[in-house]
Design a protein that fits this description.
With 274 residues, the protein is of the alpha/beta class. The chain has ten helices and six strands. The strands form two sheets. It has a four-stranded mixed sheet. Strands 3-4 form a two-stranded antiparallel sheet. Pfam families: Peptidase_M90. This is Zinc-dependent peptidase.
Length: 274
């Protein structure tokens, strides 16, 4: 009898371990969206006001899940505020609309610096010569459950984010595109696409567009896609994502096949949010 009781208690305990996180998440998502959160979105993610009501509701729920599951850490004396949390969560969750997602499941921490942060780099040249340098970065996505962002650059791009217009870069969209890219198992410019046929279509379009951007970068030709994307396929996917959300009309006109591939992946058409 004692053994049976202990077994039942153990099973109950295991059940609670699985049930409690799910219950807490459901409770967090079900809470009313705070009014000041909506004000932050209208101010710092202005595209929110141009979305249809169903997408606005989706975005709010995704933000609540993001804020419930991810820990924000202020670095170099930065105090984390609701403005920082909601702004970053709002932009990151733009990439998840209309898609079945666990909301960046491998991501646990968002480290936020007041401005550009220094990352040490080491390069090993032929012959074993090691060169060390310090790079000043505005954002970085790491494979060990972290994204790092410079808040002043996040804020600077807030005013720029206007779908369909010629605007600047967005470090949040860029770094969270890298997070999506890594969900396939490697960060190589091909996110998780679910089927072989979709990977084949993706590869055909992206290889051609990547080669075109490399050519444009070599000749310093004007491009709606940032030349930084010519660095490697992973960076190409990240800057193409920025262009898709920030320069949707121009991208659709100048690179229709690339726009169509991104629209199929992201399940939205930002040109409609005008």
């Amino acid at each position: 009898m004692t053994f049976i009781l202990l077994t039942m208690l153990l099973m109950l305990g295991i059940g609670l371990l699985f049930w409690l996180p799910k219950f807490r998440l459901q409770r967090a998502i079900a809470r009313p969206f705070p009014r000041h959160y909506a004000q932050i979105l209208r101010m710092n993610v202005p595209v929110f006001t141009k979305m249809p009501a169903d997408l606005q509701l989706q975005l709010k729920r995704l933000i609540q899940q993001f804020l419930h599951q991810k820990k924000f850490v202020g670095c170099d004396g930065l105090t984390i505020t609701d403005e920082i949390r909601v702004t970053i969560a709002g932009k990151a969750c733009l990439l998840l609309l209309n898609r079945a997602t666990r909301v960046y499941p491998d991501l646990a921490f968002i480290l936020v610096y007041p401005s550009a942060f220094i990352v040490p780099r080491s390069e090993v040249a032929a012959g074993g010569l090691v060169t060390r340098r310090n790079d000043a970065l505005l954002g970085e996505s790491w494979s060990d459950d972290r994204v790092i962002l410079a808040w002043d650059h996040v804020k600077r791009s807030n005013a720029d984010l206007g779908v369909g217009h010629e605007v600047g870069h967005d470090v949040v969209l860029h770094e969270f595109a890298h997070q999506l890219d890594s969900e396939s198992g490697s960060t190589n410019g091909a996110p998780y696409l679910m089927s072989r046929a979709r990977y084949e279509r993706w590869s055909a379009v992206f290889l051609q567009e990547f080669a075109l951007l490399q050519e444009a970068a070599r000749h310093q030709s004007v491009s709606v896609i940032d030349h930084y994307g010519a660095t490697n396929p992973a960076e190409f996917f990240a800057v193409a994502t920025e262009a898709f959300f920030e320069k949707s009309v121009a991208l659709g006109q100048e690179h229709p096949a690339l726009f169509a591939a991104l629209r199929e992946y992201y399940c939205v058409d930002p040109r409609e949010w005008q």
